[in-house]
Model the fold of this input.
Amino acid sequence: MRILVLASSRYAPTYNEKLLSQVAYINKFENMEAEIYNDMPLHEIEEKLLSHKYDVVFPAVVFDYTYEDTFPYAFNCALYNLLLYHNQEYIGSDVYSQLLLNDKALTNHRSGMGLPYFILTRALWENKRQLAIQSLQSADMEWPVIVKPNTLSASMGITPESVAYSMEQIEFIINKQFKQFKGLSELLIEKYLQDAREYTVSVTGNGEKSIACATAVISKNEHYQMYSYSAKNMSPDSRPIYYGEVLDPSLKQTLLLKSKQLADIFKLRDYCRFDFLVRGDEIYLIDGNTIPSLGYNYMFEYTDTGVLRLEQLLAILIFVFSRRVHAALPQAFVDALPGQILSNL
Done:
């Protein structure tokens, strides 16, 4: 099997030692050949698709940098369009599902699990400022709120400074967000839960043949600390959080069930991840991710216990893909993966 791996080092970096080790692991096996390219321009990707025969592409690239390099566009649909136009099989969900999940407001609406929110468009803010302010006031939002880009992935624009406790603060934050992200057309103004608990759940596989793994995102401080964009780009030891088990069995089962249901509702395939906030008996979906990084918080229950090594994560996705499209894999490659995982996929 010939595999093209596309990664990026900017904004939502996926080109890292973990992914390189996963590519190296695949290349250990006879009749398995994985090539990895970092920050490859779209025209070079298209050249690859036209001049080479790949059995599958793993597109671990979140943003489209084609138009201007100083700021990212919402979602790299141009890349997925190329894959579709050239009838290229790839790991991950189709472009329509990814576009839907990339819009946080639409995700909240479709899931039925979102926090109370208000959508503010750049057009209204820049042309009808007073009406926008009146609309915000009449929305009866409970303070505090968080102001974040509606269509940017990887927690971009999400920092502790994005939280507003008054109308005066919110106006300042809105101006700052629109100025920082010049291509952004919408902001999501969402109820901010203080002292909530955060959980992330990965779903690997398709339909009944899938595995959901729940992970607790634990703050190193006494109170809940936002897992911001800057924190995500720190080394694991420097981050304000660490990952751990979900200790409440009932909550864990609820999170697993809801995540599998969400994967079905959004018609996602192969792999995805959902992030939740929990306060008391209330569970809210705060993000759905169709291109999650294959790192420490993906399939945590298996990687933390040593059942699955980090270097095998991409190999697991290749196995999932092969089952979906009925592609053959070398038996030695399959045999080297954990049987207790494969039996569920």
